[in-house]
């Protein structure tokens, strides 16, 4: 269990409960908030939703700045050098999340395309074990069989220390 200040925000259950996946061409998100009353919703958004967004989108850089401008604003930078500026002055946290999801969120088709297979190791023939291509390398043609199935030819021979004692007699 995580310890420290606000430990529930670092639990796996909390982080994985977020469902906002960003578009693949989103590179950076810059969030500027102030300590004014108009920025309260953005501060709640940063506190509750940003950890979940970062967990779901680990390739996206998310930066927060304080008091760099007079209004609370969210800037989204895309890979094709586009910049979208979202004015969030006086909005609540869920409203900001909804607007941010419409601007930078991935569509259902993009989410399906980016979905990972359940066991990606099965596609690589070099992986063995429970989630690999096959359980053991002995199942591949041309490999030595497992000693549990076929005994090793030298297994029944006497060991060197056993032969040394017989040679002395």
TrEMBL record:
Q: SMART domains recorded for this chain?
A: L51_S25_CI-B8 (SM00916)
Domain Ribosomal protein/NADH dehydrogenase positions = 34-107
Looking at the record, which segments are called Disordered? Answer: 146-169
What keyword terms does UniProt attach to this protein? Mitochondrion, Ribonucleoprotein, Ribosomal protein
The listed locations are: Mitochondrion
**Residues spanning the signal sequence:** none
* InterPro entries attached to this UniProt entry: Ribosomal_mL43/mS25/NADH_DH, Ribosomal_mS25/mL61, Thioredoxin-like_sf
From which domain of life does this come? Eukaryota
Query: Which residues are listed as membrane-spanning?
Result: none
PANTHER family, from UniProt? MITOCHONDRIAL RIBOSOMAL PROTEIN S25 (PTHR13274), SMALL RIBOSOMAL SUBUNIT PROTEIN MS25 (PTHR13274:SF2)
Protein name per its UniProtKB record:
Small ribosomal subunit protein mS25
Naturally occurring in which organism (per UniProt): Porites lobata
What lineage does the source organism belong to?
A: Eukaryota, Metazoa, Cnidaria, Anthozoa, Hexacorallia
